[in-house]
């Protein structure tokens, strides 16, 4: 049984033991540090986006990027490369400084990939009932936090170990990446229902990552745990915002 758990746990070689087996005060400290670092990562991401839009001529940069045949695809490729490097560092590095470096690389990569979507969304509004209009970016951010809070509560209070989702999420990730790449070469429209599906995919990842935080991380791995949660939150936010942009264009 122990061998089966070790084989299913990709973080088992990172540290000695897992936080689920630690003393209550160690678990409490780990959880507090994990979610504190998650909050820091989110604020850091927001600060970078503010800096980009205040410092650079984003309109000109985006016009140049859109003029390049595979400009957006290239950005996605760079993001994936940086993400893989950050994830590998976070999972394999015992050094806390390397965990921080991995988190920093990932937040920076996410902030860059989000620029085109935020550029599209910044001047759009979503018309609601009775003539009420809302700004898309704050609306998507609030929706993301509400969904994240609800899924976190499910993972914590249900008592369910969601690590069984790993194989399905890996397969789904490969299929999704293939669809995104193909859409740049063929007239394949990834519309509203794709965004809805991706919101479900990101939600499943939040359950999976939160379950890992509870059960499968070492006590010294709180920065790596915050990176995993940040990745899921960012993915959810991306497609919630994308869905709202699509819905606003129908008004």
TrEMBL record:
Annotated signal sequence range: none
Annotated membrane topology: Multi-pass membrane protein
Transmembrane segments: 35-53, 68-88, 100-121, 136-157, 164-186, 192-210, 222-245
Compartments where found: Membrane
Alphabetical list of InterPro entries matching this protein: Bax_inhibitor_1-related
One GO CC term, this protein: membrane
Keywords assigned: Membrane, Transmembrane, Transmembrane helix
Protein name: Inhibitor of apoptosis-promoting Bax1
Organism the protein comes from: Pseudobythopirellula maris
